[in-house]
Each structure stands twice: as structure tokens, then as C-alpha cells.
Task: inverse folding
């Protein structure tokens, strides 16, 4: 009997080890996909932040914390990921505020409010898998799961990626055991390319079928309000500047947010069409023909937001603290270096 | 609840734990509760149908039971009466029972037919999206199986071959025991009934052999059957002809074997973990040397059901006996003795076909099976002559292999009617093998455009070899029982099986690398 129990236990242990190894090998490395691991760097950050930016691509490619500190002494972090839905933003913020209860201002980009359900399982999974395990993550998974997904596959990702076995290469083995660095700058993903807006493009945005933003996303915005209130943080709503019919921000949606902000006594800044005030030049400040800002456009928008945060929201200038200055200088240097490298490789 | 799912495994684990933790007297209650939970996933309509079948069969057997008891009591009280009078009373009572059983069965069969017309055909559907088994997709899950279990039981009680289960809950458990609800087996009360209600002690062997069987079922279904399914769906959806028809026969045979026997392994393994032995439904069918042998090895309980409850009763009906007499007198002994057998066989097979689905393809499938069986029967004297003349050749391994391959090919050809669900189209594709075989298309790379990669074909191939090996090794006694006797090998074999299923199984959403790239592809 003893022999049998020992054999069963050993077989179980070997099975678990084999599965863990296989899982490590089969989970696709997202480090060759620049937008694959945008959230995980935050876990390593040990310093406090006065401002947290939450949202999707418009925010993680639009706000540069290094610039905010360099020019305004604002300590900030961007907690954004690809196509991050409102419920994901809510649970990510919940995790963030648990770690940093003294955040002064939370800036949320409202574009994701247009999604009433998770648009793409694969992209959603990148966000969710990047979150550290917590109750918030579990709730985020539950809120984000699409029809044919199984909860078990988040606990055992091999259930999701097992059929990658047929496309494994030697590179996958190398990647599995390689050490990866965070490629973001406090959550900001740098884009140095320039792909100007096509001035001859006369396409019109698609007609809006339902002018109301989905009730589910508004429900999570409401929850986000309550969460910020609970932690004494001011919630500021923004709509990032864009110049494309693809990610069009409709007037009807804008009116709804204006009215909501008024009702909740929140500040809402819509930067769409504020090109002159921001100093944006769409022939130079975008890397994908107006959909998102590149590093030049991001710096301009960041400076504008920095002004607003100092002037209208009383965010403190933290410069002068030697340790903090040194920490941020390292970050600014890394940021500047990558920007220069990007310019050289053009 | 799909058998091949994590949800089912979790359900099974919880049920097994609750079953062995419960007081022994209440174990059957745990099984009943588990069956209710399992079936509740199928939806309200399915539950109502199952409940109706349970109630109707219960009322019928109780009524018959009461009448049988009353009859027996009357007979024992009136022993002094003449034999004829007693016999007349008995016959009258039996006639009454027959009316009850006929009404009960009539209602159940009517419900079954209605369900099949309303909810679609039971069996296999092939569409552009691939191949799907109606058994999993039916709105009224498993109605064919539990209806037949109930009907068989009613007939057994009527024939006094099974006791009347007076406890409604126990009757409900017999008819609705969860593992057999989706794909059988069609069990008989005399084989399994009492097993549900007697206490079962926790035995390591049952847990191990049951778990290995469940894992093996998952392997067959997920690593082999579901992996080859896209190729079956693609050949049908793309209307491929010629040599691809032959490939379809082969792939579909692999698909249905892996799926059906794998599913049954999950069913029987689950029951085995609970200490319950359900009847076997397959016995290495692809090693059969003849069609008759094949049908004794494939879907055994279904074949037995039709034999016991249709073929035999029909053979001994008065009208069939009259027909036998008449045909012998008018058509000669040779034809006369065959005619009733032929008619009974045809009716039995027709019923078998319609049980699979109320559609022409099932009728043709059944009639072709019937034809092959009857022709084989007629040729039997010839085979016997051959066996007598060339006993060595007949017993040689190559000839035995030839017979097995021949039977496999014949059955594969007949089975393919399931795929097209269209009789003329099936014949058209069959004849295209001779008119436009296009053998070259096997080697021009178009095989890999069937939705199954070359690597997957390799895994399927290895899986088939694995299945063949396990089948050979388990010829005398199931391999899992041999493994139980060798703790080290047994434990590692189970662990390896689980690993292979998890990595090489076809399940989940599937991985498409490009779908994980966000930049530039967002909407």
C-alpha cells in the first residue's frame, strides 16, 4: 500500500512539473509583441504616485510620466493596456489603490466606454494575464470572459495555449528561460515612428446606431467614481486627442459624458479637435495616421495635461527630494535614450 | 454538460467524494441527486421529457406489477379450479398487462418521435462549420437512450424477467443514471438495477481503473476524434470527390470510433469510479472478421436491445408463425423458412435506422447493413466450404487481417451516409471514386488544406497506433486492470495519459498567433 501511495504521489509531482514546464513553453511570449506586457512593470515600482492614468492605447501611448516629472515634478504611472475595457480599468484601479491608497488624482480616458462587452478575447487575455493574482483580478476575469472561455484556463493557461505545440520553435525555448525587461516608461509605450494623417482622406465616420453609451460600461464608470471617492482621489475624465474616423468620438457620446461629469461634479476634458491649443501637428505627431499619438504628440499632450493637473487639480511638485529626483532622473535618462535611439533608426 | 469538459470532471470529482463520504444506505440518493444536477444543465425541456418518461414507465410497471401480484394471489387461492380456468384467468390478466405496456410504450415512442421531429435528427450533422454530433447538440438530451432503457424495463417487467421497482426515486435513478444519459449504454435492470442501490465501499482499484478509463476516453476523443473532425467536415463541406471520398470513409471511421468509444469509456469509467459496472458497448469492433461479428461488437447494447425487444418478439408473433407456415407451403422450404427471418431482420434494421434519425440516409444506412448481413448469411455455406477446404489459409494471420480490413472497409463505406445526410449525393460521391478518382490530389498538398496540419496528422497517427496497441494488449483482460497490479507503471501511465490529453487534445478556443497582435489590427 505504501509503495502504491508513494508511486501515485511521485507520478502526480512529475505530472505537475511536466505541466508547468510545458505551460511555460507554450504560453506565447508577448515580448516580441510590443503591446503584450504593458501592465506587469507596475509591480516592480516601489515609489508612490500622485497621479494614476487609466485606460487603453490612447492613454499608454499618449501620457509620458517622465515628462510630467521632468517639467512639473508630478509623480505618475500609466495603468493601461491594449483595448482595456472599463471593467478592466476599474479592477486594475482597485488593485492600484489598494497598493497606493494616497493617490491624489485618477485620470481615466473615456474611449473604452463605447464597449459594452469584451471586444476580443485574445487582447482581453493579454490584459488579464498581466495582472497579478488578487480578488480584483478574479473579478476582472469574470467580468471580461467571453462566451466560450473557461475560468480554469486563467488558472492553468496551458488549457488556452496547449495547441501551440505544433508551432513551437527553438526560439520559444530560449524565450521561456530568458529574463525580460519592462519596455514601458512607467506604463508609457513609446512610439517614435511618424505616419502622418492623409489630408486627402475624406472618409466619414460610420453612422452611430445607438447613441447611448452601453449601460454596462457606464455602470463601471459609476463604480470607478465610488472607488475614487472611497480613497479620496479625484477622478478626472479625459478623451485623448485623435484625428481618425476609425476611433471616432461621437458628439452624442461626448454629450453623455459632459452630462455625467456635471451630474457627478467631475472634471472632463475632451482633447479631440483641440489641436491648436495642444500644438499638435498631425503630419508629424502620430505614428498611425491620426489614430494614436507618437512620442512627439504624446509629449505635447502630456505637457498640456501637466499644466492642468498643477493649475486646476493642485497636484504637488515633488522635485527637490534627492532620492526621488535621482530615481526619476534614471527614468528620464532611459526615456531620452530610447527616444534618441528611435530617431536614429528612422 | 459535455462529457469532454473540465466542468464534467469537476462534477465527477465532487460526486465521487460525496458518494463515498455519504452513509452507505444513502449512496444511491447521492447518485440520484448527481443525475438531477447533471441533467439540469440540459435545460428545462430536456428535464421535463426525462421526468415524463420516468413517470410513465413507473406508472406502467407499477400497474403491471400490481396486476401480476393480484393474478398470482388469485391463482394460489384457486388451486382447486380446473387448469383451463386458471389458464384463462392468467391469459386475461396477461392481456390486460399487454394493453398497459403497449399504451405506456406507445406514449414513450410517440414522445421520442415527436422529439426527433421537433428537435432535429439524432446523430451526426455535418455543415460548413464542421461536424457535430446530434447527441451533444440535441435540445432533448439523450432521449433515445433513456426511452429505450425505460421501454426495455417495461417489457422485462411484463415478461416477468425483471422485478418491479416500487420506489419511485430508485426507479428514476435506474432510468436517469447520469453517465448513460448522453450516449448509452442502454442498460437492462437485470444487469445494473440493483448495483445502484447496494452499498459500495471505497476501493482504490475502482477509482484507479475508472480514472484510467475516463482519461483514455478523453484521449480517444480529444487527441484523435476531435483532431480529425475538421478534415471530415472540410471534405464534406468542400464537396471533394474521387479519392477524397475514400479518405472521408477512413477519417470518419476514425472520428466516430474515437468519439463514440471514447465517450463510452468516459461513461463506463465514471460509473466504475462509483463502483458500478455498466454493460460494455464496444468490444474491439474494428477487429471483426464479418459484418455479423462487427454488429456484435459495435454498439453492443443497442444491438442487444433491438434483438431482444424487436427481433425475437416479432419472430414469435402469431402472424409471423402463420406467414412461416404459409410460405413453406406455397413457396417451398428454402424460401419458406427464410421469408419470416428476412422480414423480421428488415423490420429490425429499419427500426434501428429510424432510431438513429428520422431521415432517408439512416434508412438507407440500415437497409445496406441489413442487405450485407443477409447476403453474408446466404453465402455462409460457401464460406464454410472454403474454411473446410483451406483451413490453414483461413486460420493464417494475413487472411484474418484481410477479413478484418474487408469488414472495416465495408462498414466505413456504409457509415459514410451519416456524413452527407443526403442519399443521392453520397452515391454520387461514391461513384466519383471510379469516374474521377484524381489520385494525384493526395500528393499535391491539398490534404493539408483540410483544416488539419501535417503535425496534427502525425499526432493522430500516433494516437491511432496507441489505440491499436492498447486494444491488443487488452485483448484478454483490460489493460487498466493489468496496470493496477503494477503500481509504478500504472501511476506513471495515468500521469502520462493526462499530460498527453492536456497538451495534444483538441479543445478550447485554439491558438492563432496573429489574433494576439494588437497594434495595427484593432477595430
Result:
Amino acid at each position: 500500500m505504501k509503495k502504491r501511495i508513494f508511486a501515485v504521489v511521485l507520478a502526480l509531482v512529475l505530472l505537475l512539473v511536466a505541466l508547468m514546464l510545458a505551460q511555460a513553453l507554450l504560453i506565447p511570449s508577448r515580448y516580441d509583441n510590443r503591446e503584450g506586457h504593458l501592465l506587469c512593470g507596475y509591480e516592480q515600482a516601489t515609489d508612490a504616485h500622485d497621479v494614476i492614468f487609466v485606460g487603453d492605447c490612447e492613454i499608454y501611448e499618449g501620457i509620458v510620466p517622465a515628462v510630467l516629472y521632468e517639467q512639473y515634478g508630478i509623480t505618475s504611472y500609466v495603468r493601461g493596456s491594449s483595448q482595456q475595457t472599463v471593467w478592466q480599468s476599474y479592477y486594475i484601479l482597485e488593485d492600484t489603490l489598494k497598493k497606493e491608497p494616497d493617490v491624489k488624482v485618477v485620470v481615466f480616458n473615456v474611449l473604452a466606454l463605447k464597449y459594452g462587452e469584451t471586444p476580443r478575447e485574445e487582447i482581453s487575455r493579454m490584459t488579464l494575464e498581466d495582472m497579478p493574482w488578487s480578488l480584483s483580478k478574479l473579478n476582472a476575469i469574470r467580468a471580461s470572459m467571453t462566451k466560450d472561455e473557461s475560468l480554469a484556463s486563467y488558472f492553468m493557461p496551458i488549457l488556452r495555449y496547449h495547441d501551440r505545440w505544433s508551432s513551437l520553435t527553438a526560439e520559444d525555448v530560449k524565450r521561456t528561460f530568458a529574463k525580460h525587461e519592462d519596455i514601458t516608461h512607467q506604463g508609457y509605450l513609446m512610439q517614435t515612428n511618424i505616419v502622418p494623417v492623409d489630408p486627402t482622406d475624406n472618409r466619414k465616420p460610420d453612422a452611430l446606431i445607438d447613441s447611448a453609451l452601453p449601460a454596462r460600461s457606464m455602470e463601471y464608470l459609476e463604480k470607478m467614481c465610488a472607488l475614487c471617492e472611497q480613497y479620496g482621489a479625484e477622478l478626472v475624465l479625459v478623451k485623448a486627442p485623435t484625428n481618425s474616423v476609425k476611433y471616432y468620438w461621437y458628439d452624442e457620446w461626448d454629450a453623455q459624458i459632459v452630462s455625467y461629469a456635471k451630474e457627478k461634479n467631475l472634471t472632463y476634458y475632451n482633447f479631440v479637435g483641440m489641436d491648436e491649443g495642444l500644438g499638435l501637428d498631425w503630419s508629424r505627431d502620430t505614428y498611425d495616421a491620426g489614430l494614436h499619438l507618437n512620442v512627439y504628440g504624446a509629449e505635447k499632450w502630456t505637457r498640456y495635461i501637466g499644466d492642468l493637473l498643477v493649475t486646476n487639480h493642485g497636484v504637488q511638485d515633488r522635485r527637490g527630494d534627492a532620492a526621488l529626483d535621482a530615481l526619476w532622473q534614471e527614468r528620464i535618462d532611459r526615456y531620452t535614450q530610447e527616444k534618441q535611439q528611435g530617431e536614429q533608426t528612422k | 454538460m459535455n462529457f469532454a469538459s473540465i466542468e464534467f470532471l469537476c462534477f465527477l470529482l465532487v460526486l465521487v467524494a460525496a458518494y463515498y463520504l455519504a452513509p452507505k444506505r444513502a449512496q444511491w440518493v447521492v447518485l440520484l441527486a448527481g443525475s438531477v444536477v447533471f441533467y439540469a444543465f440540459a435545460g428545462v425541456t430536456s428535464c421535463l421529457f426525462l421526468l415524463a418518461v420516468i413517470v410513465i414507465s413507473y406508472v406502467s410497471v407499477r400497474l403491471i406489477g400490481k396486476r401480476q401480484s393480484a393474478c398470482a394471489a388469485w391463482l394460489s387461492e384457486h388451486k382447486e379450479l380446473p387448469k383451463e380456468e386458471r389458464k384463462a384467468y392468467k391469459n386475461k390478466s396477461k392481456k390486460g398487462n399487454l394493453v398497459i405496456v403497449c399504451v405506456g410504450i406507445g406514449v414513450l415512442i410517440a414522445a421520442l418521435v415527436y422529439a426527433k421531429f421537433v428537435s432535429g435528427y439524432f446523430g451526426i450533422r455535418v455543415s460548413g462549420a464542421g461536424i457535430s454530433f446530434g447527441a451533444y447538440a440535441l435540445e432533448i438530451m439523450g432521449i433515445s437512450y433513456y426511452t429505450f432503457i425505460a421501454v426495455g424495463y417495461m417489457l422485462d417487467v411484463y415478461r416477468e424477467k425483471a422485478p418491479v421497482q416500487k420506489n419511485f426515486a430508485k426507479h428514476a435513478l435506474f432510468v436517469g443514471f447520469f453517465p448513460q444519459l448522453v450516449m448509452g449504454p442502454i442498460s437492462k435492470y437485470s444487469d445494473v438495477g440493483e448495483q445502484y442501490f447496494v452499498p459500495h465501499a471505497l476501493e482504490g482499484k475502482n477509482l484507479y481503473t475508472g480514472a484510467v478509463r475516463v482519461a483514455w476516453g478523453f484521449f480517444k476523443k480529444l487527441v484523435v476524434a476531435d483532431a480529425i473532425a475538421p478534415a471530415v467536415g472540410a471534405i464534406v463541406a468542400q464537396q471533394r470527390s474521387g479519392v477524397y471520398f475514400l479518405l472521408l470513409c477512413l477519417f470518419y471511421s476514425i472520428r466516430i470510433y474515437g468519439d463514440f468509444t471514447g465517450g463510452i469509456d468516459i461513461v463506463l469509467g465514471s460509473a466504475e469510479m462509483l463502483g458500478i459496472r455498466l454493460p460494455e458497448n464496444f468490444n474491439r469492433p474494428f477487429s471483426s472478421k464479418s459484418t455479423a461479428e462487427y454488429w456484435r461488437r459495435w454498439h453492443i447494447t443497442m444491438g442487444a436491445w433491438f434483438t431482444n425487444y424487436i427481433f425475437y418478439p416479432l419472430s414469435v408473433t402469431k402472424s409471423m408463425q402463420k406467414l412461416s407456415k404459409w410460405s413453406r407451403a406455397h413457396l417451398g422450404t428454402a424460401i419458406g423458412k427464410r421469408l419470416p427471418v428476412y422480414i423480421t431482420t428488415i423490420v429490425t434494421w429499419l427500426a434501428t435506422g429510424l432510431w438513429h434519425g428520422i431521415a432517408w440516409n439512416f434508412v438507407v444506412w440500415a437497409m445496406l447493413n441489413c442487405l450485407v448481413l443477409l447476403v453474408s448469411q446466404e453465402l455462409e455455406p460457401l464460406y464454410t466450404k472454403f474454411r473446410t477446404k483451406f483451413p490453414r489459409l483461413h486460420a493464417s494471420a494475413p487472411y484474418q487481417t484481410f477479413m478484418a480490413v474487408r469488414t472495416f472497409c465495408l462498414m466505413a463505406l456504409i457509415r459514410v451516409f451519416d456524413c452527407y445526410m443526403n442519399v443521392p449525393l453520397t452515391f454520387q460521391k461514391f461513384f466519383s471514386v471510379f469516374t474521377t478518382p484524381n489520385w494525384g490530389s493526395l500528393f499535391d498538398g491539398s490534404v493539408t488544406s483540410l483544416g488539419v496540419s501535417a503535425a496534427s496528422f502525425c499526432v493522430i497517427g500516433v494516437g491511432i497506433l496507441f489505440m491499436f496497441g492498447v486494444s491488443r494488449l487488452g485483448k484478454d483482460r483490460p489493460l487498466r486492470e493489468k496496470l493496477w497490479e503494477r503500481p509504478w507503471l500504472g501511476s506513471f501511465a495515468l500521469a502520462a495519459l493526462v499530460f498527453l490529453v492536456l497538451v495534444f487534445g483538441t479543445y478550447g478556443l485554439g491558438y492563432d498567433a496573429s489574433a494576439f497582435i494588437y497594434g495595427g489590427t484593432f477595430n
